[in-house]
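Reopening this ticket.

The earlier resolution said the output was attached, but the attachment link was broken on my side. Pasting everything inline this time so it's all in one place.
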Amino acid sequence: MGLDKFEEDGYKIKRNSIKSLDIKIEEEEIKILIEYPISAEKAETVHVFENFETSIPINFNEKYGLLEKIVNEQSLDIESIPLGYLTNLAHENDFFFEAINLDDDTILFSFIFDEERNSKEVPFMWNFVNNYNWEIGDEN
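Inline output:
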């Protein structure tokens, strides 16, 4: 957990275990609250930090709804990839996707929502793997 800089500055850092983690998915953001006691000591002074919180501005429910549509479309023909559907949905909802062959029957899908970025400017991405039962071989 990015505390190396404090240790380099002469602080003695004591980390305890995480006591609680609370994640709330709200309409326009995800809120995260962690109870994680940490003390930082330098000379005769000790600072104790117990609660950390952050929020990620994203409409998670909207993204999840799009992915539910993809799963429903895929279920109509489980042995094919609905590329036309994926392309239209991506265009209409401002995201892009990648499909990477991991092996003959396994595809890694990545859905990248470029307008939704975290504090390090990394876009929100949803990945999942789909296994197919494709017969690959000589058709003669």
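Reporter confirms the inline version is readable. The chain has a mean pLDDT of 89. The longest helix spans residues 60-76.
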